[in-house]
């Protein structure tokens, strides 16, 4: 008797993620959308304040200079978010400051010609102008790769299996930065972590008038409660005799943002003066632009899933990268002191709230622009202690092993320079920046292995037949709904 054949069980992947109340083209009520947009703005503040707080003092800048850089970063971030949601991928992604640019920027800061300037303010101005020049030149990499469709052509080598480690490390790569900051002020960071997990995960089914208010607004509620608690500790004198480093992380008045911020200030191009250009600085910055490109590619894939949209076609992916290059160009013109990328924490918030509406993100961009102009009010929200943001990141990110980037990071911390330490500074910046990034290393390894190890025989297991129809704009009828440009602009920029 012939043995019965085992039953084949097929689990076809879903083109769109189910269970979202509001996807990319559906919108909550205006009141709810404004509250959700403000929540995304609060989350974007973390990176917008953290990066300038690290870099500006090293450049010789004062508290006033730091506030202006924070305002400029938020202002340009709001503009770039609107450009990306209107003309780029049209996915609900917040564009914010990128940590990938820190390595080449640190190299510029420690340039001997700039270190010789004795006046701190003059050194700050000369340094930020050098950063601007390098960023303006380096932005051409994304502009060319994006608008020429080269990045879209290269994306045909991406399979769902190959993108798994990239998206994972994009979402989880900053996790190691979050827990140490939580530990820097445990009396604020740990309660925030516990409360946010409780609201967003364990109590998410609690509803008021059929609205899952704790799931939807967990971040806003917990930040308000813990911020008030932190202010109470500060006002009561709990940190008067604590070390300076503890006060810096725990106090709500230590950053001097509110006192240094102007009431009204509109950032404008070349506000720091004319940019200066150096070939070595520009080449090192190009590595950061490539890292930003790869990180954003993974973030776009994740955002499309969490917005319950189809995977972006190659044409849309290239279009988004091209507009992100324009965004980095604006960073260089305005002087944000760092480049742009898709804010991974805000992508994570899409999944936490289960709201993938494009309108919500555009409203958050409006808040970024509005509060960057009204300096005092923006500085009030920006005075939220870092451990509160870090606790949120611990929930929205996760921990994934990344051996090579971890080696580069640990080596840099110990030796104050990367493993590549030759006499050619531009080469060091390029190598150290590339291998400092977990998503970049993940993409290089994943794409290489995915397209070399039995790639023909395992195409179905890798998900290639399913993904092939999304490579072109006309490959799926839903792409027109999700990605068509507004104002009938597709006739000038026809999808390829």
From TrEMBL:
Transmembrane segments: 38-58, 93-109, 130-151, 157-175, 182-202, 217-239, 360-382, 388-408, 429-449
Lineage top rank: taxon: Eukaryota
Membrane topology summary: Multi-pass membrane protein
Chief subcellular location: membrane
Keywords: Membrane, Transmembrane, Transmembrane helix
Alphabetized Pfam families for the sequence: Xan_ur_permease (PF00860)
GO cellular component, one term: membrane
Cell location: Membrane
Coiled coil: none
Gene Ontology molecular function: any one: transmembrane transporter activity
Matches recorded under PANTHER family: XANTHINE-URACIL / VITAMIN C PERMEASE FAMILY MEMBER
Family recorded in the similarity comment: Belongs to the nucleobase:cation symporter-2 (NCS2) (TC 2.A.40) family.
Official protein name in the record: Nucleobase-ascorbate transporter 2
Origin organism lineage: Eukaryota, Viridiplantae, Streptophyta, Embryophyta, Tracheophyta
